[in-house]
């Protein structure tokens, strides 16, 4: 049976545990470490596929729960699948909807069979199970599907977290069974998701359960849920070594520039986060000197680019004064400019990280970047 997702390890940085690699999928190959722009409703908000290709985005994310609600996976399937529907012919990863159910719907009831909750738009009663989450992702035709998991709130007590991990492991097995029965397992890959919160014993249990099932890749879930950064780093330090070295490791929901670099150093290959696109829409930009809130009055007559060290189209063409004006007027073009720059900034950061791994100098790169961006060095 052909395995649709394969990981090619290129090298490990001699200064850190970071790895350089490639992931091969039915819609092409992407380099790792890699940041994946989030396109929840089958669009990376305000970006066209051409914009995304211009900034060398190599894989994007979409979402089972949201596309199930609108427009419905049947319509996407009739369109020929998500790649055709949204005109994106490179790799797509879909999140399973588990996390969205736990974060969007308050009226929910978790049972062994699945989760009962209300449609966050209409209030109608809905039910999502591991099997249903797989069926939706099969209709969407994503290259990488995610198992249906429970992402518990932070903090969660040990006994609740243990029950949750054991159920998530049983759900993972049901996802794999459904996936193999679908006849799609040669053209779509399924990643398992390790949970367990900040508890080392539960992370070990979750990793053991999931790696005993044969997934082509594994994610670390349940982080970036409000825990301090040193807690995230500690959890990664004892979790990534439990994950197969010959398969991609994906840290879900991360993140900010410092968390990306610190995640790579601890062996993570793939990241996704709504941060760059979300803060762009309220006029906050990531720059090499830290965050810049371009809507701030002090930029009214500032005709420099957002970031003088950025060579993106936006920074070569438009000024802070102009972008501030557009954002203040709620002009959509303003959101396009801040979004384009923020995504370009993170994709460029990952490109520099890959280069630093190639040159065995990622720790030095981290220190230089933290200094200029304004992060306190540990
Ligand atoms: C609160 C934010 C979104 C920042 O982070 C998280 O919740 N982080 C965890 C997370 C993000 N996406 C996921 N998908 C799934 N299936 N499971 C998860 O645990 C997560
Ligand atoms: Zn720029």
Task: Write a structural description.
This protein is of the alpha/beta class and 378 residues long. 42% of the residues lie in helices and 18% in strands. It has 15 helices and 16 strands. An eight-stranded parallel beta sheet has the order 4-14-13-12-11-10-6-5. The longest helix is centred in the last third of the chain and has 27 residues, at 332-358. It is globular and about 60 Å long. Bound molecules: the ligand CC(C)(C)OC(=O)NCc1c[nH]c2nc(N)[nH]c(=O)c12 and zinc ion. Ligand BPQ binds at residues 95-96, 98-99, 146, 149, 151, 193, 221-225, 252-253.
Low-confidence stretches: none
What oligomeric assembly is this protein in? single chain
| Total strand segments | 16
State Rg: 20 Å
What small molecules does the structure contain? the ligand CC(C)(C)OC(=O)NCc1c[nH]c2nc(N)[nH]c(=O)c12, zinc ion
Estimate what percentage of residues fall within beta strands. 15-25%
The main sheet orders its strands as 4-14-13-12-11-10-6-5
How are the SSEs placed, and which strands pair?
Layout: E1 6-12, E2 19-25, E3 28-32, E4 34-36, H1 49-54, E5 60-63, H2 64-69, H3 73-78, H4 82-86, E6 92-95, H5 98-104, E7 108-110, E8 115-118, E9 125-128, H6 130-140, E10 144-146, H7 158-182, E11 189-194, H8 200-211, E12 217-220, H9 229-239, E13 249-251, H10 257-265, E14 270-272, H11 275-280, E15 284-287, E16 290-293, H12 313-317, H13 320-328, H14 332-358, H15 362-373
Parallel strand pairs: 4-14, 5-6, 6-10, 10-11, 11-12, 12-13, 13-14
Antiparallel strand pairs: 1-2, 2-3, 7-8, 8-9, 15-16
Helix pairs in contact: 6-7, 7-8, 10-14, 10-15, 13-14
């Amino acid at each position: 049976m052909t395995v649709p997702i394969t990981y090619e390890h290129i090298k490990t940085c001699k200064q850190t545990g970071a790895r350089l690699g490639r992931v091969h999928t039915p819609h092409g190959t992407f380099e790792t470490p890699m940041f994946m722009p989030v396109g929840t409703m089958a669009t990376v908000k305000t970006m066209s596929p051409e914009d995304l290709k211009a900034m060398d985005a190599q894989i994007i994310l979409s979402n089972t729960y949201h596309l199930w609600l609108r427009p419905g996976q049947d319509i996407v399937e009739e369109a020929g699948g998500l790649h055709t529907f949204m005109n994106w012919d490179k790799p797509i990863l879909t999140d399973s909807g588990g996390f969205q159910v736990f974060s969007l719907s308050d009226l929910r009831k978790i049972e062994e069979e699945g989760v009962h909750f209300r449609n966050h738009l209409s209030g109608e009663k809905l039910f999502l199970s591991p099997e249903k989450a797989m069926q939706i992702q099969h209709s969407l035709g994503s290259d990488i599907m995610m198992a249906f998991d429970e992402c518990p709130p932070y903090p969660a007590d040990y006994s609740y977290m243990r029950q949750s991990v054991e159920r998530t492991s049983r759900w993972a097995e049901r996802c794999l069974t459904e996936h193999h029965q679908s006849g799609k397992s040669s053209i779509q890959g399924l990643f398992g998701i390790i949970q367990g919160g900040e508890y080392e014993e539960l992370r070990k249990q979750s990793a053991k359960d999931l790696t005993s099932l044969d997934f082509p890749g594994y994610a670390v879930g349940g982080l970036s849920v409000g825990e301090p950064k040193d807690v995230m780093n500690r959890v990664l330090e004892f979790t990534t070594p439990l994950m197969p070295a010959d398969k991609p490791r994906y840290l879900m929901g991360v993140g900010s520039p410092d968390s990306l670099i610190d995640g790579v150093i601890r062996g993570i290959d793939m990241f996704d986060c709504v941060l760059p696109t979300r803060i762009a829409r309220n006029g906050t930009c990531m720059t090499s000197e830290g965050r810049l809130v371009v809507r701030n009055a002090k930029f009214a007559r500032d005709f420099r680019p957002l970031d003088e060290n950025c060579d993106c189209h936006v920074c070569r063409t438009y000024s802070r004064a102009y972008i501030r004006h557009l954002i203040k007027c709620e002009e959509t073009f303003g959101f396009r400019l801040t979004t384009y720059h923020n995504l370009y900034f993170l994709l460029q950061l990952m490109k520099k990280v890959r280069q630093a791994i190639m040159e065995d100098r990622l720790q030095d790169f981290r220190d230089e970047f933290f200094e200029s961006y304004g992060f306190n060095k540990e």
